[in-house]
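Structure in, sequence out. Go:
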C-alpha cells in the first residue's frame, strides 16, 4: 500500500512563536535585482500577536556574504530577537533587514523584512514563478470570490448609494463577507477618488474613493481592484464598501456592522 506524506503541522516554540515548514520555492531580491534568498526549504513563522506570517530560511540558502552585524539593533521587535543584520547590496546599506529568532526550533534560520510591508528590506519576493506582495499568503486562510444573485443595497446616512442583484461575494477567512458591486449599480458620483492605495497578497492593489457627503463616514470607504490577482479575478473593477462604516442590506436583511481591525 502506497504511503502518502502527511501535511506539515504547525509547531509552537516555548516563546509562543508558531512555525511550519513550507514546500514552496521562495526567492527574495533587492530592487536592483540581487537575489539574496533562494530557498527550497523555507519555514512560515507567525509571531505572537501578529496575524500574518513571514518566512525564515536556512542559512545555507541565504547570501550571508551580504549581511553585516547590525549597527543599531532595534529593541523588543520580532519576538525579542537579539541578533539583527544590515544588508549591503547594490551599493546601499539596508539597516536591520534580517534577523534570527531566539528559539531553538528555529536555530540556523534567518528572516527578512519585506519592503512593501514595513518600508525597508527586500523589494521583490517570489513563490515559484509568481511574485507575491506585502507578506506570505497564509496556507490556513482562504479567499473565495463567488458571483451571486443576492439583492444587496448599501446606504450612507440615509442615502442609498448602491443597489444590485449581481454582486460578487468575497469570503476571506477572519473577515466579514465583502460585497463587490458593478460600477453601474453604484452612485459613484457621490464619491471622490483619492490617492490612497493598499496592497494585499491575496487580491492585489486597491484604489479608493471617499464619501463627499456629510455624516460620520471615514475616508476611503470604497475600494476596487483594477488588476486583481487571478484567484479573485471575478472582482475586477467592482466596488466594495467597508461593512464597518456603511449600512448594508442583503435580501431584505439589514446586516449588523462588524467590529474588525478596520473599524
Amino acid at each position: 500500500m502506497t504511503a502518502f506524506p502527511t501535511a506539515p503541522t504547525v509547531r509552537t516554540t516555548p516563546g509562543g512563536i508558531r512555525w511550519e515548514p513550507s514546500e514552496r520555492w521562495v526567492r527574495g531580491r533587492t530592487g536592483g535585482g540581487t537575489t539574496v534568498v533562494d530557498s527550497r526549504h523555507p519555514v512560515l513563522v507567525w509571531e505572537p500577536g501578529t496575524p500574518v506570517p513571514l518566512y525564515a530560511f536556512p542559512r545555507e540558502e541565504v547570501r550571508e556574504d551580504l549581511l553585516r552585524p547590525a549597527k543599531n539593533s532595534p529593541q523588543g521587535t520580532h519576538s525579542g530577537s537579539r541578533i539583527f543584520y544590515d544588508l549591503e547590496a547594490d551599493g546601499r546599506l539596508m539597516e536591520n533587514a534580517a534577523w534570527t529568532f531566539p528559539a531553538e526550533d528555529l536555530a540556523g534560520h534567518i528572516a527578512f523584512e519585506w519592503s512593501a510591508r514595513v518600508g525597508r528590506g527586500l523589494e521583490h519576493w517570489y513563490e515559484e514563478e509568481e511574485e507575491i506582495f506585502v507578506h506570505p499568503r497564509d496556507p490556513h486562510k482562504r479567499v473565495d470570490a463567488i458571483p451571486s444573485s443576492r439583492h444587496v443595497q448599501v446606504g450612507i446616512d440615509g442615502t442609498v448609494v448602491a443597489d444590485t442583484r449581481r454582486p460578487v461575494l468575497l469570503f476571506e477567512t477572519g473577515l466579514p463577507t465583502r460585497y463587490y458591486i458593478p460600477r453601474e449599480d453604484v452612485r459613484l458620483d457621490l464619491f471622490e477618488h483619492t490617492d490612497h492605495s493598499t496592497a494585499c497578497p491575496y487580491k492585489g492593489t486597491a484604489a479608493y474613493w471617499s464619501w463627499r457627503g456629510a455624516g460620520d463616514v471615514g475616508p476611503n470607504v470604497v475600494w476596487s481592484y483594477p488588476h486583481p490577482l487571478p484567484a479573485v479575478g471575478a472582482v475586477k473593477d467592482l466596488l466594495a464598501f467597508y461593512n464597518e462604516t456603511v449600512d448594508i442590506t442583503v435580501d431584505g436583511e439589514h446586516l449588523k456592522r462588524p467590529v474588525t481591525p478596520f473599524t
